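Module 6 notes. Inverse folding takes a fixed backbone as the condition and produces residue identities as the prediction. Think of it as a translation problem where the source language is geometry and the target language is the twenty amino acids. Below is one complete input and output pair. Work through it position by position during the lab.
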């Protein structure tokens, strides 16, 4: 019965669309109920009031009403601890499956009053990702506080924060004030790289991708002068800055492009193939190869660099997933 009521309340509370900008907590979005300690105090206060009436204790009335006012003020402070906080979602860097994604959330406290003992946690059983516990923090006055909310990535594709609960029991733990948050933010999860998966060698003449060797095409940096180096290769500008004799280095691509084709993966399942291809992309990039990606839904021309690596990993992570997740 209690579970059904909670589910109905969450459905009513989440009747609004997913937030895309800055959320400001107002009286319409903050809920508050007594905690177990609050209900226990209320029960004690009722007993005290009955005793005061029965024995006509003047000081008893004073103590009873004083404790009641403390409880009421505690409720107001719990509400004020959340009221008018501005919250916006930041970015989340891609991670590999099995790692922990960190969703950045910015809590802007424009008030002159600091906010204490704020807690952020998952909401309900519909939140599929595993969260590493509840995150507690304070929001200083007139400051923007950045919080990294951790979520364990269990599978490739898009990982969303889902519905979050921001709550507080400040100051006395007698009342539980909370608000629901649901931002349109997500993190890309790459497949977990397979260990012990050497690069394929059957689609290039040299058995490897295009490597960079000493040549005359592309500038590759500077090195110290060695007797016998050609004078035109000396960086005279660096010498004028009293950096010593340094020689310009150039590289020339060697070999053919290495194609990372999912059909070359010997694994049985699709997820294992994608895991192997993730390892191929990382190793090819680390070795400075020029590589292309070939999947059943398209191919990516050969290149290298961080941008090319990330695009390859993105296509692998989203391969054969519903279009709505992209």
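Target side of the pair, the amino acids:
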């Amino acid at each position: 019965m209690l579970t059904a009521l909670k589910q109905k309340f969450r459905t009513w509370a989440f009747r609004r669309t997913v937030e895309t900008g800055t959320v400001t907590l107002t009286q319409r979005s903050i809920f508050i109920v007594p905690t177990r300690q609050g209900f226990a105090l209320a029960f004690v206060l009722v007993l005290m009031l009955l005793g005061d009436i029965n024995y006509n204790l003047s000081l008893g009335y004073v103590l009873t009403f004083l404790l009641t006012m403390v409880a009421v003020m505690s409720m107001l402070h719990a509400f004020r601890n959340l009221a008018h906080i501005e919250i916006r979602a930041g970015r989340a860097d891609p991670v590999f499956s099995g790692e922990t994604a960190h969703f950045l959330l910015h809590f802007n406290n424009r008030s002159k009053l600091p906010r204490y003992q704020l807690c952020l946690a998952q909401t309900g059983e519909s939140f599929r990702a595993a969260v590493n516990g509840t995150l507690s923090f304070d929001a200083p006055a007139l400051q923007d506080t950045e919080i990294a909310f951790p979520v364990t990535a269990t599978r490739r594709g898009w990982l969303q924060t889902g519905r979050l609960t921001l709550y507080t029991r400040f100051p006395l733990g007698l009342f539980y004030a909370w608000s629901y948050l649901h931002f349109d933010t997500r993190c890309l999860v790459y497949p977990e790289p397979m260990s012990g998966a050497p690069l394929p060698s059957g689609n290039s003449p040299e058995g490897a991708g295009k490597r960079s060797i000493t040549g005359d095409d592309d500038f590759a940096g500077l090195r110290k002068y060695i007797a016998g180096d050609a004078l035109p290769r000396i960086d005279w500008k660096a010498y004028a800055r009293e950096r010593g004799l340094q020689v310009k280095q150039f590289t020339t691509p060697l070999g053919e492009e290495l194609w990372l084709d999912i059909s070359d993966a010997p694994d049985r399942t699709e997820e294992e193939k994608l895991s192997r291809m993730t390892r191929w992309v990382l190793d090819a990039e680390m070795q400075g190869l020029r590589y292309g990606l070939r999947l059943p839904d398209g191919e990516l021309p050969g290149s290298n660099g961080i941008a090319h690596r990330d695009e390859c990993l993105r296509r692998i992570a989203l391969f054969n997933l519903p279009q709505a997740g992209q």
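Reference fact for the lab report: Confidence is low (pLDDT under 50) at residues 125-132, 204-208, 211-215.
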